[in-house]
Write a structure and sequence with these properties.
Strand content: 15-25%
Number of helices: 5
CATH topology: Alpha/beta knot
Radius of gyration: 14 Å
Strand order of the largest sheet: 2-1-4-3-5
CATH class: Alpha Beta
Structural class: alpha/beta
């Protein structure tokens, strides 16, 4: 099951971008034996400023994927529950998941409406650049839980 992180904006070599790429690479390598991966980070740029234009650009990149929006009003899952969600989707035949991370202004209503699920990292508001790294790490953590690796500790 391929996993894409669809992210508004380009971070270049910012620390958050490097962290996100590292965790995505780890998840890809560890996930292969468990039919998870590759995990890719897709930076999406809108032609015009604003949530509506960003939303159009994000929706255009879904490519038939099962969309999950990262939104502060979404559901906060414990790491084991997140791993169980990935397992259910994989075992249920989903071939491609897309986690959608908006820009500084958040996600457009059209994108939120298209989501099959909303995921939150708690009630706080996090910088969109940092959410990339946090999400990539949680995907890696989920893969290690699925694999039975000792990385995650309860």
């Amino acid at each position: 099951m391929r996993i894409s992180l669809l992210c508004v904006g380009r971070l270049g070599e910012a620390l958050e971008a490097r962290l996100a790429r590292d965790w995505a690479a780890r998840a890809t390598a560890s996930g292969r034996p468990h039919a998870i991966g590759p995990v890719e980070i897709v930076e999406v740029a809108a032609r015009k400023p604003g949530r509506a234009a960003e939303g159009e650009a994000l929706l255009a990149r879904l490519d038939g994927a099962w969309p999950i929006c990262c939104d502060e009003r979404g559901e906060a899952l414990a790491s084991r529950d997140f791993a169980a969600l990935l397992t259910r989707l994989r075992d249920g035949g989903e071939r491609h998941l897309a986690f959608i991370i908006g820009g500084a202004e958040g996600l457009d209503e059209a994108v939120l409406a298209a989501a099959r699920r909303r995921l939150a990292f708690g009630p706080q508001t996090w910088p969109h650049a940092l959410v990339r790294a946090m999400l990539a790490e949680q995907i890696y953590r989920a893969v290690t839980i699925i694999a039975g690796s000792p990385y995650h500790r309860d």
